[in-house]
Amino acid sequence: MEEIAQSTKTIFILAGQSNMSGRGGVIKDPHNNQKLWDRVVPLECQPHPSILRLSAKLEWEPSIEQIHADIDTKKVCGVGPGMSFANAVKDRINGAVGLVPCAVGGTAIKEWARGEELYENMVKRAKESVKDGGEIKGLLWFQGESDTSTQIEANAYRGNMEKLIENVREDLGLPSLPIIQVAIASGLDDNYMEKVREAQLNINLPNVACVDAKGLDLNEDHLHLTTESQVKLGNMLADAYLKHFAASP
User: Fold this and answer.
1) At residue 246, what are phi and psi to the nearest 5 degrees?
2) How many CB atoms lie within 10 A of CB 247?
3) Which segments of the chain are extended strands (E)?
4) Catalytic residue check, 18
5) Fewer CB within 10 Å: N-end or C-end of the chain?
6) Molecular function terms in GO for this entry (predicted)?
7) Is 68 annotated in the active site?
8) CA–CA gap between residue 56 and residue 229 (Å, rounded)
9) Catalytic residue among 68, 186, 224, 229
10) pTM for the whole thing?
11) Catalytic residue of the set 21, 221, 222, 239
12) Using an 8 Å Cβ cutoff, are 233 and 81 in contact?
């Protein structure tokens, strides 16, 4: 484990709500109606010696699904986009891919404001991730479904997201930190969902990209991406990173 900790790492923060932490493959147990993960891990999400995750205990370890299980602890986690993203970029970067899971299901963007627990924990984990070497190369952000319940929340989304980007760059001392956000594919109210999507797709700040999850298949709850969709999303995030932010080979 010491060898893992000291290796060169290209680090990515994974933040947002449940579609980032992952609900792919989460199903209802027919015996007791409780939710459980079906434990199906697609080829694109398989572990690899060069893919690591920072645990809740702030220790580097091999990354396997469910990578948010000790972070998003109040719900059952399944497959998210993190592992397919890491597998898609690992051959184009130096050293190991270090994933820093921070997403928590059901959270609104106001809960990610500076001074709030989720934001401060994300910053703490990000700072801890580079203590023994490595470099933070991006924040992958998938959130907004919880901001689609009222017009006030939806109208405020763009300003709140721009402030989040400003704050996290300032607090990490990375003024050009790449941000790749996901435009949401589901929400609580269709009208307000479109307002949040509009905000996400039209943020015009340096080193901010957006991939659109609309059209990806959802679970039967009509809120969460399926395992297959999470694999596709991870590849979309990887394509965006490699196109916009990765250094040329």
Assistant:
1) -75, 140
2) 9
3) 9-16, 26-28, 35-37, 51-54, 60-62, 96-101, 135-142, 179-183, 208-212
4) yes
5) C
6) hydrolase activity
7) no
8) 26
9) 224
10) 0.94
11) 221
12) yes
Tally of residues, the chain: 249
The H-assigned helical ranges of 22-105 are 82-89
One-letter amino acid of 195: K
- Half-sphere exposure of 111 toward its Cβ, with a 13 Å CA cutoff? 17
In terms of Cβ atoms closer than 10 Å to its own Cβ (0-12, 13-18, 19+), residue 218 is middle
Query: For the chain, what is the mean pLDDT?
Result: 93
Is 224 among the residues known to form the active site? yes
pLDDT per residue as tens digits for the range 170-228: 999 999 999 999 999 999 998 899 999 999 999 999 999 999 999 999 998 889 999 99
- The answer to whether 160 and 113 have CB atoms below 8 angstroms apart is yes
Instruction: Please say whether the beta carbons of 44 and 173 come within 8 A.
Output: no
Please identify which of the residues 18, 84, 129, 186 carries the catalytic annotation: 18
First to last CA, the chain: 29
- For tokens 């209802």, what's the residue? 28
| Residue 66, preceding peptide bond in cis (omega within 30° of 0) | yes
Three state DSSP letters for 81-149? CHHHHHHHHHHHCCCEEEEEECCCCCCCHHHHCCCCHHHHHHHHHHHHHCCCCCEEEEEEEECCHHHCC
What's the maximum distance between 2 C-alpha atoms anywhere in the chain?
52
